[in-house]
Amino acid sequence: MSALFNRLRRPSARLFSLTLLVLIVPVCLRAALGWSTPLGYLSDLAIGSLLIVLLHRRAWWLALPVLLFWGLLAVATAELVSAVGRLPTPSDIHYLIDPQFVENSTGGGLAHPALGLTLLLALLFWLLTQVTARGTPNPALPRALWSAPLVLFAAHWGVQNLWPSEADPWRAYNLPHQLMASEVADLQIRAEEWLDGDVEEPAPAMTGLTDVDLNGQKLLAAPAQARNVLIIALEGIPGAYIRANRVAIGSHYQEDLMPNLSRWAERGMNTPDYVLHTHQTIRGLYAMLCGDYDKLNNGTPKGVEMLTLNERNQACLPAQLREHGFSTHYLQGAGLRFMAKDKIMPHIGFDVTHGLEWFTNSNYLEFPWGKDDKAFFEGALDYVGQLKKQKKPWMLTLLTVGTHQPYSAPEDYLERYETPKQAAVGYLDDALEQFLSGLERQGVLKDTLVVITSDESHGIDGVRLASSWGFNLTLAPEHEQLPRLNKGVYGHVDLSTSILDYFDLPVPSALSGRSLFRDYDTGREIMSFTNGKLRYHNGQGIFAECDMPRRCRYYESAGFIAESATYKGNYSGHPARQIAARANALDLSLLRTPLNHRYQFGSTNVIPLQAQINNDWADNLIGAQYLEMPKGSHTRVRLTVRSVDPQQTAYIQLKAKEFEQDVQIGLPSEMVATPEQPLQMNFSFDNPQERKAFSFHLLGYGLGAVEVTDFSVVTELPGQEDLFEEVPEDETAQSS
Q1: Between β-strands 394-399 and 526-530, what pairing exists: parallel, antiparallel or unpaired?
Q2: Closest Cα partner for 92 from 531, 477, 498, 677?
Q3: pLDDT per residue as tens digits for the range 643-681
């Protein structure tokens, strides 16, 4: 024992333990995770050697917080890549270190628990050597080692610039290195722009992105045989899960997680090069149902912005079909209030909007967001049966939630698949098969245009552009006349135009995009913003991928989604600014500024309370999520919550989050509301820096139910406080 103690006291033991922690373990973990690339190992060595140089002679109490944060980033990176197939961005750091968010997102478990355990053991070993050798001086490192980080970083930079890798970012970078590289590149670009001086950038041409294009040759010569429309949006499913898409793109990805859907795809028209423009369900639904790009950044979703407008919403697909005699219906397997779908869906033209409250059938498994996929599709089949009884043609949009984090599946599926995510996808595939077969038995497929797609993509590790790769499977009565593979580049922005074109209905000029039911002999412009990268295809064989806002790489690529593309070079300056300008112009298609718009998220709906709050997201009582607040602005909020049950007290919490991380703005920890004395609040806060993805979470528990009759939010510049009528001073928050 004494011999071991003496060995631990040696300076070499401390250096070895630090080297083990920051160099050897990360390299081994990279190999174990399957992220092996020369650039990735080079990045790990560069960051590890930098930590050794910086921390070797530091006091343990100074080095420990740095190492804890570094280790937490490593765990968070593995979890995010596993969950959604992307590397964290700086904005993600806020919530990746939030224990509550991690618990809600992972269901209380980690995808790679061994990684965290290995890092923890290595950290404890390092700490043991530090404590054991207290008072023993640490010799200086050889001077030659001080140059090692610089040489390694320079080598990585040289390889990336001379022979750029198309590998996923997490395969080519250690996260701290990637963040550092981005900051250095931004500084370089700012310096270039400063040297160029003030340059007035001409407005970019936008018609290719914003106009309706019906110049293609129609695929169907005769009028539509379908009288109804069914749109099925599958939560998070990428295009690579469809076998026909993989073959058409030439993808190396061969996991067959959705064999049933792939078999159905052989009976319909597939669009392999199908682009998802953004992340988040509400943004995907807006693009497909309203024929417009949602924000190509993290600004306020356009569906929320549209609540302040009473004209553009009439151009959305549900409103257009309703105008032409369809009854329009929306049904999802989760509660409607999150992301304000209870308000947005009726506003864009749905006659009937239902969420979790509509279902009377029981779940097959517990799932925090709502209905598991099997239970959802069983209910949806009953819903279609009810629609069949009416004389009017109908439109029904369905949204599943079972493949949302945390992924849930029955035990037998969890035993058959390697990960819960794969098991959830397999469970969805079987549930969808039963639903489609049920539609066929009922004769629905004979007179209904069925479009199966996804709201967003949860990504796939190692598959290029998987976060932007969607799918569109169209099952039409005229399936024999339609091609099995629809050539050309399409995306969610085309869906509304396509369905109106199928029925030979007029397409409003406010919509944009092409028709999936036409054959075009020219390329088209299209954009997406996923995984923190802005992507643009010019329709003429050039694909650009930009780290926002002014640094791009460009490739030769016939289409948008491709297994690989030929790297042509980097650019900043005018070409990069033009791409950013296009994205900015698309972002402003509804509102020119996020300032001075009053959002009202309250309603007279009666909301049943639960005995306790289980989830800040699924249990939210209002839809004020992912708002944008400019730098230097001032935000004011007013709310009224009333318990509707006599002699029952409702306990209310109001939380603010930015990128899912709690933000302290001086709110009470808990408040109460009764029938006689409603909770009334009127508060405000400043925005010294720009806020994006800012969410309010109004939570309640107790007996009975409540009404949130007012939840008003307005953001303005100081001095413009006349948009709210004055609230009496005695209307203050009540706290328990």
Answers
A1: unpaired
A2: 531
A3: 998 888 999 999 999 877 788 888 888 999 999 999 999
Q: What integer pLDDT is reported at residue 107 of this predicted model?
A: 46
Q: State which H helix or E strand residue 14 sits in.
A: helix 11-19
pLDDT of residue 725: 53
Structure tokens belonging to residue 302: 């356009």
561 and 239 in contact (C-beta within 8 Å)? yes
Determine the distance from the C-alpha atom of residue 399 to the mean position of all C-alpha atoms in its chain, rounded to a whole number: 16
User: Does residue 735 carry a pLDDT above 60?
Assistant: no
Sign of CA dihedral 247, 249, 253, 258: negative
Q: What is the dihedral of CA 287, 289, 291, 295, to 10 degrees?
A: -20
Half-sphere exposure (Cβ direction) of 577: Cα atoms closer than 13 Å: 11
- Eight-state DSSP code of residue 554: E
472 neighbors 494 (Cβ within 8 angstroms): no
Report the pLDDT value the prediction gives residue 198, as an integer from 0 to 100: 64
What tens digit of pLDDT does each residue of 151-191 get?
999 999 888 877 766 667 788 899 899 888 877 777 777 77
The stretch 516-540 carries a mean pLDDT of: 94
Q: How far apart are CA 74 and CA 115, in angstroms?
A: 9
Which pLDDT belongs to residue 82? Answer: 74
- Domains in the chain and their CATH numbers? 2-192 (no CATH), 208-587 (3.40.720.10), 598-716 (2.60.120.260)
pLDDT above 50 (res 733)? no
Q: For the residues of 466-520, what is the DSSP string, one character each?
A: TTTEE--EEE-TTGGGS-SB--S-EEGGGHHHHHHHHTTPPPPTT--EE-TTEE-
Backbone angles phi, psi at 16, to 5 degrees: -65, -45
CA dihedral 495, 498, 502, 505 (to 10 degrees): 100
Q: Which of 73-82, 210-219, 424-433, 641-650 has the lowest average pLDDT?
A: 73-82
Q: How many CB atoms lie within 10 A of CB 328?
A: 25
Tokens of 353: 């909007």
What mean pLDDT do residues 27-52 have? 92
What's residue 297's pLDDT? 87
Contact between 723 and 611 (Cβ < 8 Å): no
DSSP for 588-652 reads TSS-S-STT-EEE---S-EEEPBSS---TTTT-SS---SEEE-TTEEEEEEEEEEE-STT-PEEE
Contact 552, 572 (CB under 8 A): yes
Q: What are the contacts of 539-543 at 24+ separation with CB within 8 A?
A: 539/208, 539/489, 542/568
